[in-house]
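From the methods appendix. Each design record in this collection lists the tokenized structure first, followed by the designed amino acid sequence. Records were kept in a plain field format so they could be parsed without special tools. The example shown here is representative of the layout used throughout.

RECORD:
FOLD TOKENS (159 positions):
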């Protein structure tokens, strides 16, 4: 394949992938290299689709963050996903627009409903679940401080 043909093929590959979802520049270059394109052709094809406005790392960040928040992932896990996709840590500013207290409360409610942890072991298990989802210890502690204590319900005289 001649150089212009290789460039056109690499550009067509980029367009086909971008038609399905947003990709970072790094991901596209990696995928093109995996298909056998050389580094220079891969970079120039990605540059061309970026200049045409068809690829944007900012859109990729926004899409990834929105999707991960909707799946109930916390800021630490999302930051790691951004790094894995080759997006700069500074692009994590997209995380600042979210009410993480509301997000963690929704994740907790979906998993456990309104039930309280019955024992310290159960409480630790629930805290571990939230930590694995990417929420910080501070966010988890704040959530558990807001939860009513099980003993508060026992004190209510409901007959």
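DESIGN:
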């Amino acid at each position: 394949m001649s150089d212009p043909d290789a460039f056109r093929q690499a550009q067509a590959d980029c367009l086909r992938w971008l038609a399905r979802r947003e990709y970072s520049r790094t991901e596209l270059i990696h995928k093109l290299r995996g298909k056998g394109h050389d580094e220079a052709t891969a970079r120039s094809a990605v540059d061309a689709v970026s200049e045409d406005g068809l690829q944007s790392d900012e859109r990729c960040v926004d899409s990834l963050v929105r999707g991960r928040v909707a799946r109930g992932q916390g800021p630490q896990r999302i930051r790691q996903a951004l790094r894995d996709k080759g997006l700069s840590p500074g692009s994590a500013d997209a995380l600042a627009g979210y009410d993480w207290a509301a997000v963690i409360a929704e994740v907790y409610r979906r998993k456990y409903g309104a039930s309280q942890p019955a024992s310290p072991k159960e409480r630790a298990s629930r805290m571990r679940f939230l930590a694995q989802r990417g929420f910080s210890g501070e966010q988890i502690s704040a959530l558990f401080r807001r939860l009513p204590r099980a003993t508060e319900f026992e004190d209510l005289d409901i007959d």
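APPENDIX NOTE: The chain has nine helices and no strands.
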